[in-house]
Amino acid sequence: MTIAPEQAPAPERTEDRPSPPPARAVTGLIDLAEVVFRELPGHRPEILEGRLIVNPPPDGHHADSLTDLTLALAELHRGETKVRQGIGLWLPTGDEDYVIPDLSVVDADALDHVVAYNCFDPRVFRMVVEITSGNHVNDTVTKPPLYARAGVPVYLIGNRREEEVVLLTDPREDGYRTRSVHRPGETLVLPESIGAKIEIDVDTLLPR
Hints:
Layout: H1 29-39, E1 44-48, E2 51-55, H2 60-72, E3 81-85, E4 88-90, E5 98-99, E6 103-107, E7 114-116, E8 119-120, E9 125-131, H3 136-149, E10 154-159, E11 164-172, E12 175-182, E13 187-190, E14 198-201
Parallel strand pairs: 4-8, 9-10
Antiparallel strand pairs: 1-2, 3-6, 4-5, 6-9, 7-8, 10-11, 11-12, 13-14
């Protein structure tokens, strides 16, 4: 007995296929940043002085340090202040400039002060924290004058490459006036201006 071959389905007519949605025009760096958010999950785009910077996903040690620091700052997550991870800060250095600190201490009503693209007025930020990874130069060299110009009172850097924690305070137009460096095994006291005078272990921000 001969088995008849299966007939191939009739080709779908072009006119029966739904048309793809029109591509959204990319008109600026903000649009490119949105493409990165959508197409590269886990990556964090920022625009610094008119340049689009794409930060890779953090590693596990980075995440552990950030969690430990959040717990150490728990008393600030009530009353007049909140502790938040990964919220945008709109920078005054360019039309589309913004940055996303690893962690921030902000005024309790910060969510009422969106400037654009879910980024917030820098005046509601009391402290920003960056823990370095592949973006070492951005966190230690590029961002300090930008945060200072935005008027962020306290910038705390966990510099994992150099195994040190840097505390920057007293912002001016050209940078922070006060800089203190702390080594593993030491403790440091954060300024009371962030909401409370809190002492933290340097090791909290460094890999173990």
